[in-house]
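Feature request, filed as a ticket because there's no other form

It would be nice if the structure record came with a short human-readable summary line next to the tokens. Right now we just get the raw output. Example of a typical job, pasted below so the devs can see what we mean:
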Amino acid sequence: MLVFLLRRRPFSTSSLPTSAPGISNLYTKYSFTPPPSLHEKPKNPNAQTQHAADNSNKKKKKPLYLPPSSLDRSGHKTIKSDLPFDFRFSYTESSPAVRPIGLREPKYSPFGPERVDRVWTGVCAPAVDPMAGKEEAEKSETKRKKIREMIQGQELTTAERVALVETCGKHKTKRQINLGRDGLTHNMLNDIHNNWKHAEAVRIKCMGVPTVDMKNVCTQLEDKAFGQIIHRHGGSLILYRGRNYNPKKRPVIPLMLWKPQEPIYPKLIKTTIEGLSIEETKEMRKKGLAVPALTKLAKNGYYGGLVPMIRDAFLVEELVRIDCQGLEKKDYKKLGSKLKDLVPCILVTFEKEQIVIWRGKDYKPKEGGCFLMDRESFDKNDTNPGHKSQDVNHGQIEFDSDDEK
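Raw output as currently delivered:
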């Protein structure tokens, strides 16, 4: 062993390369040459392209959803609409004649910030500046009539009307627009025009509170959509688009992004009824809740016969109670406000999900009756004795049901 160590050649550091930065120092300390795996790896020219290919194969993360109202509108053009009427959330459940006494929140547009070229007043977006005067309002009204006449064109014949009614039947198509407790809303106009792309007429089913005054629903539909009602059976309507309607030239309808807050209106029921003392009012409320219910309203039902039913009941009874169990509080309050104007009557109480109404001291029934047909015929040459012949124009329908006011 000693001989082997003596014969070993002396180790010289000059024969091997010195340690460089980034290279192991095993050689300088232990006279050990590091393997090639510990050396710095040579650069691969294809590494960059391979890395890019790996990144492309990975799924890109979706950006977080931002609602249209929160987007920056700088650089975007405002939506301009030439529709000659005020934009409201609901055209059947809000009246321009009734003015609110206040707003629940500050004014903000339901269309989003700076998206529409109209100012939101808290109730509507007027087409004409209210300070402009009556002349501008009359001009917009005449413009609306001209647009509707131009779109409608020549009147439909009986055969054409019957064919359209058949194509819109439930056994033929499932296309239908539901008109609920909010009535004819602004965004529903866009749905009607979308349906008119594929068919000349669309079926609309009315349910709930708006069906108390079907005359108002029909007039608002024809006025705001520029269409024509060619058939009505209860709460089901068929709205015709017109002969000269062009889907490519449909009007610009900016959509409401959210439902605006309802303004504050005066109370429907006061502490004391006019003409009565506090004690008499309390007694009438107790008596009204004990009276047998005239009818019970179903949720999302058809209430078209409610007004004539109440008018007939007032010929015999002084107080009438309507059972509204299962309905929302907003619904039977809206019903009460409509009945107050349509019957007319005096509201007594809304307690225990009931509507109690009083006919008043000097009640006089309206002459001529107030019964409405469940089905209306719009044919000029209708020979069926059970249906009254009516003109195509909706003005005749208004004349037949004029005592609904």
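Something like this underneath would help us a lot:
Residues 129 and 373 are 41 Å apart (CA to CA).
Residues 2-6, 11-16, 368-372, 379-405 have pLDDT under 50 and may be disordered.
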